[in-house]
Design goal:
Layout (H helix, E strand, L loop, with lengths): L2 E5 L3 H13 L3 E5 L2 H11 L3 E5 L7 H10 L8 E4 L8 H6 L2 H10 L15 H13 L5 E5 L7 H14 L4 E5 L3 H7 L3 E5 L2 E6 L1 H4 L3 H8 L5
Helix pairs in contact: 2-3, 6-7
Length: about 220
């Protein structure tokens, strides 16, 4: 998920930008001074920096110059902002995303939880919400790391069905140890053991591979 550094000495402006960016599924960092912005950018390497041109300790142009010449920050895109950039109604802008948010909630089966806090959702539904925020970026490729780990059977079935739906329109690369999920979802499977590829193919092929059986069940089963 892209990371955006917001640099502005006015808390109200930072909050405005933060609310809009997070509503779009982006992560944010903030800085209120030029020297702080340089330090945060150096430590965190954001994907883009939104930079106010008027800061209390140095001009925004000087901040941009130091970022361009800095190790690791020279390639970060910097978008310069003036006060006029914030002269719009944030509530009106956010409401424009309501229809898309409802569509995403329906897509992951969370339409009945639209008024719930994310912290109040079950573990499985939190994973569904994570997938929804990823879908908001309209990715062509989704990377999922053990999406059903730690879930009960009901949540496993729900998330597996969700992954199957979203995979119709994009490529999904998934790390998963639940063999039932692997068998039901995967078109091509790569089996790894200690960093080495043991086998590749569909489930029927790799599940009968002697090296795979030996590695995961023991040599007596091979």
């Amino acid at each position: 998920m892209p990371l955006v550094l917001i640099v502005d000495d006015h808390e109200k402006n930072r909050k405005l930008a933060r609310d809009v960016l997070r509503a779009a599924g982006l992560r944010t960092l903030e800085a209120g001074r030029g020297d702080e912005a340089i330090s945060v950018a150096t430590d965190n390497r954001p994907d883009v920096i939104l930079l106010d041109l008027r800061l209390p300790d140095m001009a925004g142009t000087e901040v941009a110059r130091q970022l361009r010449s800095g190790t690791g920050t020279g390639g970060i895109p910097v978008v310069a902002l003036s006060a006029s950039a914030y002269a719009w109604n944030s509530d009106r802008l956010l409401r424009e995303y309501d229809a898309r948010a409802e569509e995403l909630l329906r897509a992951v089966g969370l339409q009945d939880f639209r008024d719930s806090l994310a912290a109040e959702l079950s573990y499985g539904r939190k994973r569904a919400l994570e997938i929804a925020t990823t879908l908001a970026l309209e990715p062509e490729l989704m990377l999922l790391d053990e999406p059903t780990a730690g879930m009960g059977h009901e949540d496993v079935d729900r998330i597996a069905a969700l992954i199957q739906r979203v995979a119709k329109d994009r490529t999904v690369l998934m790390v998963e140890h639940n063999l039932g999920v692997v068998a039901s979802l995967s078109q091509k499977i790569t089996v790894l053991a200690r960093g080495e590829v043991l086998a590749e193919g569909d489930y029927a092929t790799v599940s009968k591979d002697k090296a795979v059986v030996a590695a995961y069940l023991g040599t007596e089963h091979a």
